[in-house]
Amino acid sequence: MTNGVFSTPRPVPGRRVPTLAGAAVVVLALPVFIVGGFPLGGWALAAVLWAVGELFGVWLARIPTGADNLGKSGMVAVGTAFRGIGVMIALAAVTVANRSIGVSAVAVYALAYSLALGISLLEYFSSEKIG
């Protein structure tokens, strides 16, 4: 990697395309679950966690942040961390209670999250540098 790749400021990637791509994974997983005979409870859990997580992310994004507002920026960071931790705890608890539902929910959520993250990273690193 070149020096400065992570130290070069770039604009924050948009949320719309990654969110829609992740949602498309969740929606397209439904027919796979129906045809494949996988537990629909796992798909439903992943869909609910995805929707709630994205709504929480939208709420966090509406909190005004900036260099002059470091406290609110920290609040967004902590909220984002708790979002991820909350999803992991919910998925782990369901997996312990019912392995087939939990594993199927983890698979769908992980695919949706991975695609959304990949698109965000691609958008970030392909954008023009600030300054």
Structural write-up:
- It is a single chain.
- The protein is an all-alpha fold.
- It has one domain.
- Helices cover 76% and strands 0% of the residues.
- It is built from four helices and no strands.
- α1 runs antiparallel to α2 and α1 (16-36) runs antiparallel to α4.
- The longest helix has 28 residues, at 70-97.
- The model has no long low-confidence stretch (mean pLDDT 89).
How would the blueprint of this fold be written?
Elements: H1 16-36, H2 40-61, H3 70-97, H4 99-126
Helix pairs in contact: 1-2, 1-4, 2-3, 2-4, 3-4
Low-pLDDT stretches are: none
The proportion of residues in beta strands is under 5%
Mean pLDDT across residues:
89
The biggest sheet, with number of strands, parallel, antiparallel or mixed sense and barrel status, is: none
Order of helices and strands: HHHH
Instruction: Work out the radius of gyration.
Output: 17 Å
- Inertia-based shape: globular
Question: Total helix count?
Answer: 4
Q: How many domains is the backbone divided into?
A: 1
Question: What fraction, in percent, of the residue positions are helical?
Answer: over 70%
Count of extended strands = 0
Distance between the termini: 21 Å
Give the helix/strand class: mainly alpha
Short description:
The protein has 131 residues and is mainly α. It has helices at 16-36, 40-61, 70-97, 99-126.
Question: What descriptors fit this protein?
Answer:
131 residues; mainly alpha
